[in-house]
Amino acid sequence: MSTTPGLVNEVNLIDQLLAEQRSLTAVERFARRHEACDAPAQARYYHDLIPLSKPAAGQQYAFAVDLDACTGCKACVSACHSLNGLEEDETWRDIGLLVGSMPDERPYLQTVTTACHHCAEPGCLEGCPVMAYEKDAETGIVRHLDDQCIGCQYCTLKCPYGVPKYSSRLGIVRKCDMCHERLAVGEAPACVQACPHEAITIRLVDIEEVATSAHPGTQMISGAFDSSYTKPTTTYHSLKPLPANAAPADAHQLRLEHAHWPLILMLISTQMAVGLFVVAALTRAAEFPLMAAGFAALNAGLFAAVFHLGRPLGAWRFFLGLRTSWMSREILAFSLTATIGAPAVAASFLFPGSGLAFALNLITSMLGLVSIFTSAMIYVDTRRALWSPVHSFGRFFGTTAMLGIMGSAVVFGASGWTRGMQWALATGMLAHLFLLAAGYAGYFFPKRTRQSAHTLRRFLPWLLPARAILFTISGITSILAMQTGWPFAIAALLSCTAAQLLERYAFFTTVHAYKMPGGI
Amino acid sequence: MSGSANIRDRIRALTPTRDLLSLRAWRGPLTEELVRSPGQFGLGQIPTTLAPDATTTTVCGFCSTGCGLNVHLKDGQAVNLSADTTYPVNLGMACPKGWEALTPLSSPDRGTTPLVRRRRGGLLEPSDWESAMVLFCEELKALKAKHGPESVAFLSTGQIPTEEMAFLGCLFKFGMGFIHCDSNTRQCMATSHVAYKQSFGFDAPPFTYADFEESDVLVFIGANPCIAHPIMWQRVMRNPHSPEIIVVDPRATETAMAATQHYAIQPKSDLTLLYGLAHLLIEMNAVKRDFVDAHTTGYEEFADFVRNFPPARVSEATGIPEERLRAFARSIANGQRVSFWWTMGVNQGHESTRTAQAIINLALMTGNIGRPGTGANSITGQCNAMGSRIFANVTSLVGAHDATNPAHRAKVARSLGIHESVIPTQPSLAYDQIVQGIADGQIKGLWVIATNSSHSWIHQSEFNAILDKLEFLVVQDLYPTTETAQRADLYLPAAGWGEKEGTFINSERRIGLTKKVRRAPGQALSDFSIFQLIAHYWGCGDMFSRWTSPEATFQLLKEISRGQPYDITGIADYRHIDESGGIQWPLPEETSDAVAPSVSSASTPSVEPERRLFEDGQFFTSDGRARFLFDEPRPMAERPDDAYPFLLLTGRGTSAQWHTNTRTAKSDVLRKLYPARCYVEIHPDDAARLGIEPNAPVRIASRRAEITAAAFITPTVQPGQIFVPMHYGELNQLTFPSFDPHSRQPSYKACAVRIEPA
Q: φ, ψ for residue A492 (rounded to 5)?
């Protein structure tokens, strides 16, 4: 193109159109109608939908949903997303569907909009090891302190409504804060502003009343978890009676939950470690190698756990949650175990067979067992069926016993105590048989864990057979070890460990995670 | 609770201030990400990271509701949007698609350069506009030279602005000299168009959205506005008259759930039902004789005809007991302001035009038209289907003129400054006939603009096989990834809604303005610019020298509208539309002068925000009277039989999905709001009988194809019927190609299938 002054440029039409395409002219060309207006224009639609006054003492803000007005447009979800600047795939509100039939056999459909229920006794808050949750003293809003969060994701397991969601980009969890900044200045939360049918409102509720009326067996709406657990404050209203058979549209949908591999490795490793310490204390044979192996496994496990944290640098604050959080207690218990474990190992090395070494190991073992207990309680405390006390304690202590004993067998064999190795292999295999049988029992006679059994059948049909094969391999290698020598015990230990990794994988992935009703 | 409060107090006691290094980080970079601050511009609080420096209103580009969206701009570019508080259509609300309207523009699979497939079976390879235009013109000119003007066709859309549609139609017919073209509006609104044209003398949906609020009886036939037009349903919910809401639909849809009466008729028995209602209304003396006598013709013949539709016959055909039919008719008879609303359940049928007219007949005979809260009202589908119906220059001459009428030809030629001889008098083939033309080898070149026929056309597998016969297929779209674009020989990257200017006409005839608030990626150009380029390269640029911009084109279209029922000569310009919150047609020059200037804007005359047609009882026919039109009902083309015992219904899935999901699938938020996999609704009795488990895969087979879908077992469908949403690509492999003889609209909602566990 010529740039000679005074000449008309011969502009190519394509270039001209591309240049036009890049120019944005809406602002100059058209009215900027809102320029002068500072008051929120939408207030005309929402001023009746939020309380006139701030919560009084003992009161808090709560969502109230008029089911009869909710017709399934789902605008609340995207409005919340846009007006709160969430990540592309992040939503703080969700929509579910209840399906059933009326007494007169007419069909029943009801969409259910749901966000955080700002519970009177929030499970997320109680589970958080670093107090990254705050139930606001004035408003009752359960806020998440994003910069406090260490990304342990325990709240995502604790909340029975599936509210907190983890962002791998940020390494933290985020959730609905009821647009607390908006409410503070008399503006409505985004979802309230955006509902074409005024189905979502903010009301004041009496916290004590919410807590006392949440008896065991009550639920906010069909498909929601028992309200007695966290005492949610959201209320759902309808003039039409909800049919008894109304069920979430996704009630039959099975899905694999997150595997949490660092946690799987951490649990298996720490459990083997504690088992080794305990065996050392009980037998007082090969104390140093047992405890050294235990100490190594313990630290390997704790190291693996760090990879589960989105922001591990803040984890030193773990003690903040000690009052309510089993996660905090677990971190404390394992820290103490490792702290006492180190001098215990040293004592067993420097003063083999001494009373000091035994005493230190006894403390380590006791602390270790307490740690396993806290590990199990982390899961028990979520109230998920597959993580019930029987399941969690059975699996965790069973694994502790089996891997501790099998690990000891290798140590005994390597230190030349063949008879000890043989006894250990035999006992360990009994424990393995018991764990495998428990796995099959849970599969064939699931009772409360039917959903998990279905999930296992649907997605991991190979898992139990694989465990059985590993059991067989560990059995054969154990016999070979007894007859030909200890190196086969290593193979036995490895196959037992692999079997437990699979068991723990299923423990995490096939758990039925409670949540609000979902869609088709 | 008190416990955690205690520990909190203790922690606070330990830490002197929140801002100093403390055990609890109350602030920091992560917290900052979500901090809200006063947004100005009347927005209330908004995320600080997305704070705008200006805002502007634009009209949504998904459906025909035509909501106003308030775009938040930073440096002229859209960073966010919210529903516009004051726009008269949506009153501060929007559906999820509207809220997410900007997201599909940022999709990584946007087309950024023209793409060329150099040999069949090869890949689409990047090219440039110069080469693409040369190729486009060479190929189509060669076809025209060899096979004549009937050898190339286009299929376009209801999704682009009126100015672009008009440009396309005029360029193709007047400039390039071809004949055959049609639009995907054939798939949604052709029936309403023809029905209105025949009954009222012009394609004129008479209503305004205020009618939703002013009725005391609303009858929805084959419509599911709760999820298909949620913002129209907002207006229904605002109705203060505790209206009777009657829904006619084979399925218990969301709207049926919200209704006061639901008639779950047998599929495609709607025509019989409507004639039966007319029969009962006559029996109940509910006919407004004075209105009928003064403003209609053909009533006596119609009354005679419906004598053959006694309740017994209608009950047998529809499956509705006689006493419920009477209750239905009584509700209409007792209503003071009855409005009738229909959508695709009516329009997509094998006798859809007569069905729509049967609804019109009910409104006419009961005098429910031309008054607030009344009307026989077609709810349109696409954002600019109404623009297409008037200006697309496909089957009628641009501006709803008749190409065979010399006066019309002369007027159009004069308005556009072209020679009359370039206006072809030969009518265009309809969509299905164009497809047939390709199959027969008559049509050898096809240009597809902003539609995804390979997904959406009925009996899809046959359609795609037919496409392979083309010698040259051009696809012009935002994405080269659509099913249709994947078959193209040449792909042209188009700018989308939000990246260009123009007007849409919504369901209530409101002309709304859509603005350029985003930069298109790469070399993508607005369809308008692409048409300018083609005109230039084809050698007919002079003919379109006045089409310099969308707004200049709008002024041309105003001229074309002069004297027509939709006369919009009273609209000054884009700014007038923008400041008025959209303007409903008609607005002839004199009307606009008569209205006092608005207080807010001195430059442009103000317009009454809600206007309806036929308040004077005068229709657009030559004698000013509306027509009663009717025909004997016919059975559907493919009825269930022993081999294929189930009837497959199709329709909208959720409010978060739009048609072939080309755009809606690009938004993570919208994807969360609809089922990811194709699913099928099956009645519990059928599922039990066939051993189909909840959520288990089901094989659905028709005589044409077989697909798999997840079972959703629900009593909302009737036994013997199944429902699959239309958004899943595989569905239309099953559908049976039958068409309404008047509108040539495909009957998507009825074909015979069998199902079994997969």
A: -60, -45
d(CA B97, CA A322): 45
Reported confidence tier of residue A2, pLDDT bands at 50, 70, 90: very low
Cis amide linkage into residue A103, ω under 30° from 0: no
Strand partners, B338: B217
**Where does residue A331 rank: exposed (0-12), middle (13-18), buried (19+ CB within 10 A)?**
buried
Alpha helices, DSSP H only, in B539-661? Answer: 550-561, 574-580, 589-594
Q: What is the pLDDT of residues A269-307, one digit of tens each?
A: 999 999 999 999 999 989 999 999 999 999 999 999 999
pLDDT at B350 > cutoff 50: yes
Strands B115-117 and B217-221: unpaired
What's the pTM value of the predicted model, to 2 decimals? 0.93
**Using the beta-carbon criterion (under 8 Å), do B1 and A32 form an inter-chain contact?**
no
| DSSP H or E segment with residue B516 | strand B510-516
Tokens, residue B354:
């007569």
Q: How many residues comprise chain A?
A: 520
Q: H or E stretch including B513?
A: strand B510-516
**Inter-chain contacts counted by CB atoms under 8 A, chains A and B:** 301
| Distance of alpha carbon B24 from alpha carbon B8, whole angstroms | 10
Could you tell me the CA-to-CA distances from A5 to A8, A9, A11, A15, B524 in Å, in that order?
Answer: 8, 9, 14, 20, 31
Residues A297, A270 contacting (CB under 8 angstroms) = yes
Q: Which residue of A has its CA nearest to B46?
A: A83
Average pLDDT value for residue range B316-324: 98
Q: Do B258 and A71 touch (CB under 8 A)?
A: yes
- pLDDT given at position B4: 54
* Tokens matching residue A339: 């702290």
Q: What is the pLDDT of residue B8?
A: 57
Closest CA to A366 of A405, A389, A346, A337: A337
Q: What is the CA angle A357-A362-A365, rounded to 5? A: 120
Residues 6+ apart with CB under 8 A from A445: none
CB atoms within 10 A of CB B613: 23
**Rounded mean pLDDT of chain A?**
94
B735 Ramachandran zone, left/alpha/beta (phi>0; psi -120 to 50): beta
> Residue B109 CB: number of other CB atoms within 10 A?
12
| Residues B15/B24, Cβ–Cβ less than 8 Å | yes
Residue B77, chain A, CB below 8 Å: the answer is: yes
Enumerate the residues of chain A whose CB falls inside 8 A of the CB of residue B578: 30-31
pLDDT of A103: 85
- What pLDDT band is residue A8 in, cutting at 50, 70 and 90? very low
Residue B637 touches partner A, C-beta closer than 8 Å: no
Strands (E), A104-258: 107-114, 133-135, 142-144, 165-167, 172-174, 200-206, 235-237, 247-248
**Closest B-chain CA to A29:** B575
Q: Where are the alpha helices (DSSP H) in B653-733?
A: 668-672, 684-690
On average, the pLDDT of chain B sits at 94
Interface of A with B in 232-291 (CB under 8 A): 249, 251-254
Q: What is the C-alpha to C-alpha distance for residues B657 and B63, in angstroms, rounded to an integer?
A: 11
User: For residue A74, which of B103, B96, B664 has the smallest C-alpha distance?
Assistant: B96
Contacts 24+ apart (CB under 8 A), B117-126: B117/B488, B117/B489, B117/B490, B120/B489, B124/B480, B124/B486, B124/B488, B124/B491
Query: How far apart (Å, rounded) are the C-alpha atoms in residues B501 and B360?
Result: 35
Residues in B touching A74 (Cβ below 8 Å): 95-96, 654-656, 673
For the purposes of burial, counting CB atoms within 10 Å of the CB of B478, is it exposed (0-12), middle (13-18) or buried (19 or more)?
buried
Tokens of B489: 């020989």
